[in-house]
Amino acid sequence: MNSEIKATGAASVFVPDHKLFAEGELGAVLEWEVKNSAGVLMTDPRTGELNRGKKKAESFVRQFMELVAGIFAHPCEAYPISVRDTGNVVQGVITCRDTYTGEYHYLFIANAALGTTTIGIVAGTGAVAPTINDYALGTLIAHGVGAGQLSYSAMTFGTPAADASTSHFTCTRNLANNSGGAITVNEIGLYVKAYETPTYTTTYHMILRDVIGGGINVPNGQTLTINYRPIATV
Amino acid sequence: MRTKIKLTRFDKDFNKLQVVEQPSRSWVVGMWYWMFCQMSDGDLPNSIDITNTARTLASWQDNNIASAWGRVAAGGGIGGEEDVYYSGSQRYYKAAAQLLGIVVGSDNTAATPSDYALGTRIVHGVGAGTLLYGGCEVANPAFSDPNGEMIIRRFFTNVSGGNVTVEEMGIYQSVSGASDHIYYFCIARDVVAPAVVVADTEILMATYTMQITV
C-alpha cells in the first residue's frame, strides 16, 4: 500500500490569529485541514462542511514551563530541572555537563523525521480533557499503514516573523491515512527531545496537548495537515 | 500564557515604598527565534540570522560549545564581555551579566513585536544615570492544576548620587553565534506606566511572572 504523503504546505489561514488571543498573551494557534491525494481540501463526511478547523491551543502543560525554566536557568549536572517524560518518569534535565565535553543540549528539539513519533506533532485517539499534569497523549496513533495507523511526515518549520501586532512561527506535520479505513483524531500534541543526567541520554517530553471536540475525521486516502503556530501578541 | 511585570521600590533598609504592577504585553519576535532554533535543532548550516540587541545581524546557532544558549539567569555586575576564554583545551564563554536577564531602561516608546532591544538601557554602574545590576534569578516553576507559574527576578541598586527613572523593562537572552561569540537577544520589552523614579540609595526589584492555565 502506498504510504507516500502527498499533501504539502501549511494549512490555510481563515481566522485572524490575533482574534484568538488577548493583548500580551503568549500561546499557540492550532489549525488543521484534511485534503485528498491531489491536495484538494475535502469535506467532512459527517457534516458536509469543509474538513478543517482552527482554535487557540488551550493546553501548554507543565513540561513546557519546566523546559523554558531549563533554558533560562541553564542547568548543569549539579542542578538539573525535574521534568516528567512521555513514559511517566521524572528526568533530571540539563543543558550541559559539569565536566567539559564540548556539548550543549537543546531542550525543545521537535524536528521529527518521517515516521518518528517520539518528537514533533503527534496525534491520538484519547478524548479525556487535558490537565496541566498531562505527560503524554491518551492514546498515540502509531506510524504505519495498518489498521488505525497514520503515516507521519517529517516536521517542517516556518521562519519566525512579526507584523504590527503579533510575532509567530509555524510548525507543520502531515499525517496520511493509508490504513484502509477512516480514523478519528481526538487529540493533538507536541513532543520534544531533551537530555538528562546522570546517564546522559535523550529524553522525550510533551509540552502541548489539545483535545478536539468531536474529533477530526480522516478518511482513508486523505491527509491531515496540522499546524501549531506559537504566537505572541502586543 | 499570561505574564505580569512588577517593579517594587525599597529604601536602603528594604522598607517597601512603591509597587507598580501591570500585565506584560510584549513578548517580541526574539522569543520565537530561540524557540525556532531549539525546535528545528538549528545548527550550521541551518542557523538563521537575526538582529541582536546591538542591532547587528548575528548568526544564531548551536556550535556545540556554547555555554549560554538561551540563558536568562545572570550573575551581578558587569561580568565579562562578549568573548570566549580558554582554560587548557577547554573553551568557555563569559557572558556579560548586565547584558542578559531582566534589564531596565528609560525609553517609553510603545513596544512592537519586532523590537530587538530596549529603547535606552540603563547601564550597570555607580555614575549618574546608572544602576547596580544584581543577579537575575530564574525560580523553579510551581504548579497547582490547572495553573502553573514561573518567576524571573532581579534587583537593582541606585548609588548614582541622583534619581534614576525607569520607564521600560525587558528580558535579554545570551546565545552562541558566529565566530564563537556570545550575542544577546531581546525576547520581551514592556513600557512601565507610571514611570518609577528610583532615588539615590534605593533598591528596585523587577519581576516577570509567567502563568499558564489549562
> Helix content range of the residues of chain B, please?
under 10%
Largest sheet of chain A: 8 strands, antiparallel
State the largest interface. A-B, 56 and 57 residues
Overall shape of chain A: it is globular
Number of helices of chain A: 1
Number of strands of chain A: 13
Estimate the strand proportion of chain A. 35-45%
What's the short version?
Helix content of chain A is 5%, strand content 37%.
Keywords:
heterodimer; A: 234 residues; mainly beta; 8-stranded antiparallel sheet; 5-stranded antiparallel sheet; 5% helix; globular; B: 214 residues; 6-stranded antiparallel sheet; 3-stranded antiparallel sheet; 1 helix
What is the fold's blueprint, element by element?
The complex is a heterodimer of chains A (about 230) and B (about 210).
Chain A: E1 26-35, E2 52-56, H1 62-73, E3 81-84, E4 90-93, E5 120-124, E6 151-152, E7 156-157, E8 161-162, E9 166-168, E10 171-176, E11 183-197, E12 202-218, E13 223-233
Antiparallel strand pairs in A: 1-2, 1-13, 3-4, 4-11, 5-11, 6-10, 7-10, 8-9, 9-13, 10-13, 11-12
Chain B: E1 2-10, E2 16-23, H1 30-39, E3 48-51, E4 57-60, E5 79-87, E6 90-96, E7 101-105, E8 132-138, E9 142-144, E10 147-157, E11 164-176, E12 182-198, E13 203-213
Antiparallel strand pairs in B: 1-2, 1-13, 3-4, 5-6, 7-11, 8-10, 9-10, 10-13, 11-12
Describe this structure in words.
Chain A is mainly β and 234 residues long. Chain A has one domain (21-233). Chain A contains one helix and 13 strands. In chain A, strands 1, 2, 6, 7, 8, 9, 10 and 13 form an eight-stranded antiparallel beta sheet that branches. In chain A, strands 3, 4, 5, 11 and 12 form a five-stranded antiparallel beta sheet that branches. In chain A, strand 11 and strand 12 form a beta hairpin. The longest helix of chain A is centred in the N-terminal third of the chain and has 12 residues, at 62-73. Chain A starts with 25 loop residues before the first strand and ends with a strand. Chain B has 214 residues and is mainly β. Chain B has one domain (2-213). In chain B, 5% of the residues lie in helices and 50% in strands. Chain B contains one helix and 13 strands. In chain B, a hairpin with a 5-residue loop joins strand 3 and strand 4 (57-60). The longest helix of chain B is centred in the N-terminal third of the chain and has 10 residues, at 30-39. Chain B is globular and about 45 Å long. The termini of chain B are close together. The chains are: A mainly beta (234), B mainly beta (214). At the A-B interface, helix 1, strand 8, strand 9 and strand 13 of A face helix 1, strand 6, strand 10 and strand 13 of B.
